[in-house]
Design a protein that fits this description.
The protein is an all-alpha fold and 286 residues long. The chain is 76% helix and 0% strand.
Length: 286
């Protein structure tokens, strides 16, 4: 006699097992997908490499005139020669030192002045027209004046960078302080915070994100200005190297100087970004 269980088993049609079908209770294996961050990093690496390969092929094939656009392999060879001789490192350090001294000379007063402008309306009303009038003046146009005042020595190059660094820092610092909600100043005033405490605990931390942005802009502008200053009145530095290479038509050396400046810009930006991660962690936590 058949039991009800046997009858149910006979009533159910048998389903043929599919080849490769996962076992019951197990989730099917999915192929690992490339995340957006990893994809972006790969694209950031591969796109410049693809451009360099196209440049190399175009220069070797005669599509580009190698007198003006030498092949990347030729530029790399010149880079190695200049690095081995020590000339590239000497000129690079001279330019970096001038930029750092100029940033310190220009950004420090700009930071203090920007905090005052952001906190005190009369100071802002008095200085805004002066900054608005002097900021658009091309900084390269005042090189002859700086040479007259400071001569051909180091000071004229450092002051050139300082003037260029001053404006981005003071403008961004003032804007950063003004963006701080008024409630924070009211709380500080209610707790009896003095001027120095207001500077240190309210204005400076609240304006830090825009201050760091101003410093990044100042570094880029400083690199541009130091090259211009070294082209006009210097016997050392990357600007001098580029100008001297133009005079003797050493085009690969010119490209080495330009690439070195761009690499310095990337390094400065990365260093400032890491400093920003430490000083402004809430901005990178978004």
């Amino acid at each position: 006699m058949k039991t009800p269980t046997d009858q149910g088993a006979l009533a159910r049609p048998s389903v043929p097992a599919r080849e490769g079908r996962p076992a019951a209770g197990r989730a099917p294996r999915s192929r690992p997908r490339l995340g957006e961050g990893a994809r972006d990093r790969w694209l950031a690496v591969l796109s410049p490499l693809a451009l360099l390969v196209l440049w190399e092929l175009a220069a070797r094939g005669g599509i580009l005139d190698d007198r003006f656009f030498p092949a990347p392999t030729s530029i790399v060879s010149t880079f190695v020669d200049l690095a081995q001789s020590g000339e590239l490192w000497t000129y690079t350090w001279v330019s970096v030192r001038r930029v750092l001294l100029g940033l310190a000379l220009g950004a420090t007063p700009a930071l203090l002045l920007g905090l005052c402008m952001g906190l005190y309306r009369p100071v802002r009303a008095a200085l805004d027209p002066i900054i608005a009038a002097t900021y658009p003046i091309p900084k390269s146009a005042i090189v002859p004046l700086l040479l007259l005042i400071f001569g051909l020595g180091e000071m004229s190059k450092i002051v050139m960078v300082a003037i260029g660094a001053f404006f981005p820092v003071v403008i961004n610092t003032s804007a950063g302080v003004q963006e701080i909600p008024a409630i924070y100043r009211d709380v500080g005033r209610n707790y009896g915070a003095g001027r120095w405490q207001t500077f240190r605990t309210i204005a400076l931390p609240g304006a830090l994100p825009l201050i760091m942005t101003g410093l990044k802009l100042a570094v880029g502008l400083g690199l541009i200005l130091i090259v211009i200053a070294e082209m006009i009145g210097a016997k050392s530095g990357l600007g001098y190297m580029i100008w001297n290479a133009w005079q003797i038509f050493a085009v690969p050396t010119m490209y080495v100087g330009l690439i070195t400046i761009s690499v310095l810009g990337v390094i400065f930006t990365l260093v400032l970004t890491e400093i920003e991660r430490v000083l402004v962690p809430w901005r990178h936590g978004r």
